[in-house]
Write the structure tokens for this entry.
Amino acid sequence: MRGLERARALGFSVVDGLRGSPVRRQIAELDAVDRMAPAERLRWQRERLAEILAHARDTTPFYHDRIPPRVDAQTAPEVLGSLPIIDKRLIKDRFDEFVSAAFRRVALVEGHTNGSTGAPFAFYMNRRRRDRVRAETLFFGRWTGYRVGEPHVFLRLLFWHPKPVVARLLENQLILEPRGLGSVEIDRLLRRIRRSKAVTLIGYPSVLALLARRRLEAGGPESLPMRSAISIGEILLPGARETIERGFGCPVFERYSATEVGYIAHDCEHHRLHMNVGSLWFELLPPDSGTVEAQSSERRIVVTDLFNYGMPFLRYELADRVRPDEGACSCGRTSPLLRSVLGRVSDRITLPDRRDIEATGLGGIFYDLSAIRQFQLVQTAPDRYAIVVVPEPTFDDETRRTILRRAHALFGDRATLELSLVERIAPLPAGKHAYILSTVDRRGESSPL
Ligand SMILES: [Zn+2]
């Protein structure tokens, strides 16, 4: 560590220390929970669950009559299971009923999700929960080799400044906004990353992969060595992981988080996704019977935040589907694992023969084609698909034939496939990349377009 970084690390300790070390103490707790034997951790989680259930019953209108007068560590999971599963839409509709009366509103921290699916969403958390999210950032950051005070680049679009300037200075974070991703903009971003001397890159994998691809064209990662890259906000396709690893000469870590509930799961050094059992209680439920996914290993993911006393999120369903993983990780942590995050239900297409195509499957068409800069699949009718591609200069007829051959193998012979080349693919409102879009109404829901 160099002098300035040491000063920043010290500065962080001093600022946190003046406040009674809330972040440091929560890191210690996350660390302790992480090392507990499974039975001990379950007991610890049940106690936290009983506490937040009693708090919600006593202070949060939506839960007044839904939680019984007596709830303890023994009965907490059963009580929780009797509560309705909630989601963004319900909270938006009945917002005031979900805010705890234990805090004055001005004492709560207001958060916003960025509306990447076109549905911006506001919520509250109490300050202790906000500190816990900071603790999670440092705790899981350590798994990637990150230490507080080290320079890192966050590639994201900003809608407001998420943190006070002092906090960002102490954290040594440079935020770069990836607006427009032509070669000129990408080169500018790469120059700024190099100047920043960052050791860690955090961003959407689609953006990181574009930068990495450019690095590879320019002759390898020698002049831009990174210690780690952290993938957030989108599905991490195997091809993208490999491109980022080669382009920046560093391992890629998947970080699964949501603004409203903090860190959900994080890659360890062995690149397996550990669930954040130190802050969340997890329920992985089979999809509704009758749907295509009901037969597969996919699960709905429902979380209960054990620490947001400002606005209890009890049985909150995230829009994603996940696959759980069995067994233990060789890193020694005993927390349960996810095999993969499959992304949102809207990130997929159901074929007429009832098979599902999701982004990871689609990635199989493109993973080794270096002549493709970006791709997107748009379903325009139940059996009609547009494959939209941003080509590299090396794109040729052979690439076109390969894509169509693989796509036909995936979609079946009855599908009508059209391949079109475009200069750019418009990102979603938050700057995320959608691999799959459908203009066809599914299950009576309105389409995302
Ligand atoms: Zn592990």
